[in-house]
Amino acid sequence: MFGLWSKKTILESGILARGTDNHSHILFGVDDGVKTAEDSLRILKFMEEAGVETLWLTPHIMEDVPNTTEKLKARFAEILGMYNGPIVLNLAAEYMMDTLYSQRLASGDLLLHGGDRVLIETSVASPPVDFWGMIDTTMRKGYRPILAHPERYLYLRPQDYDRLYDMGVLMQLNLPSVAGFYGKAVNARAIYLLKKDYYCMFGSDCHRYRAIEGQYTAKALSKDTVIRLGNIKKGIR
Prior knowledge:
41% helix; TIM Barrel; 10 helices; three-stranded parallel beta sheet; 237 residues; alpha/beta; 11 strands
């Protein structure tokens, strides 16, 4: 497959072809992501050309961005009406682990990431006060947590990642992390977690067209990284 290897960018590597982007902020006008329908469609065209087959729209829900399920479903219906390309679009949400998440969890008012899975995040600087308790409550409620971009949480220690994996928490890699776009420390953690086979999915976490264009075309990946990303896409862990 690789022949005489030369380093490839995310776009050149082929890992996006017939793949799934599990995390994006492309649903326009609802959070700090894409602002207009035109920009949403432009990004979708870029992803089509990259070969993306399935895309999850996962807008923020948090105390500072208290999107309602009804509002997001209505906006999702709008983009479905505008987009006539081949990518299969799905709606979920990315929930900050805060008081609003606890309320939504208690009421069962969640936009799930397929089946019983819920995409959650924390501040990159520090965990919520009851981090482990909130994960446990999520699981006792019958949901499978997907921890968004765990490599970005510099407060987590290696034993914390082990604990999360052993609990059955799923982990989602931000592709820009392996290309170094969040800095060396995040890049090192992403490679570490890749080598531990702790990730089960990846996503762009796309907020802007210019950002994803640069992230996917500017930085080269090693052969080992591309192979491991390919294994995630194939469901090999």
